[in-house]
Amino acid sequence: MGFFRILLFPLLFVSCDAFFGMDFFSDKKEIVIKELKKELIPLSKTVFNVIDLKTKDENKVDLTGQDFIIVSVREKGSDGRFYAVDKDGTVWWSGPVTSGALEFRSPSGVFSIIQKKRYHMSNENPDESGINNMDYMMKFTYNGHALHKGSVNWMSNGCIHIDPKDVPVIYNWSNFKTKILITRHTYMPFAKEDLEKIYAKSKKLFGR
């Protein structure tokens, strides 16, 4: 039944800002917003436009026939979710995420997994308790950005936090050929049909 739990999550068909409200991102003190270098725009389920924000150069990326994970970050106008897409173009798993706070914004673009570690403690922000705080790590930049196990109740220092119930599945499925895409645009319009089919199947099987 765990396979279908993603579709019972109440955020499935609403954007994160609509659910949490603008207060989730507001802060009374002035925050310096980290400047982004690239923008990634989904054009279809497997085709994306990557824009260099400095040069304005555009590059179309087609991931048809490839496994990839796309993260629509937890920011206004985005979904606050990850989507796992397999080689046949099916969105087969999705769940909530949190991403970098405004001063630690997660980078946008297309990345490769460069390191995987089942157990890991952050070098930059170690937990005082001594307990690992980056388990199921899938690192995708040499600056330390990674997808990993973490709370989806607060923003991060730049990494993508995936819910503890979802991250083992994604970790075990991914490999060094799996692309990681980070966008500040919604991906739900391309994923909705697949997720609705799985949701309908889960209702039929489990009567809920």
Secondary structure layout:
Layout: H1 16-20, E1 38-42, E2 47-52, E3 58-62, E4 68-72, E5 81-85, E6 91-98, E7 109-112, E8 115-117, E9 137-139, E10 146-149, E11 160-162, H2 167-173, E12 179-183, H3 188-206
Parallel strand pairs: 4-12, 10-11
Antiparallel strand pairs: 1-2, 2-3, 4-5, 5-6, 6-11, 7-12, 8-9, 9-10
Concise account of the structure shown:
By secondary structure, the chain is an alpha+beta fold.
Task: Please name the defining characteristics of this protein.
single chain, 208 residues, 9-stranded mixed sheet, 3-stranded antiparallel sheet, 3 helices, 15% helix, 27% strand, globular, disordered N terminus
Question: What can you see in these coordinates?
Answer:
- This protein has 208 residues and is of the alpha+beta class.
- It has a single domain, classed as L,D-transpeptidase catalytic domain-like (Beta Barrel).
- The protein is 15% helix and 27% strand.
- It has three helices and twelve strands; from the N terminus they run H-E-E-E-E-E-E-E-E-E-E-E-H-E-H.
* SS element count, helices: 3
Total strand segments:
12
| Most strands sheet | 9 strands, mixed
Radius of gyration: 17 Å
Q: What is the helix fraction of residues, given as a range?
A: 10-25%
Question: Considering the protein shown, what is the CATH homologous superfamily?
Answer: L,D-transpeptidase catalytic domain-like
Q: Helix/strand/pairing class, anyone?
A: alpha+beta
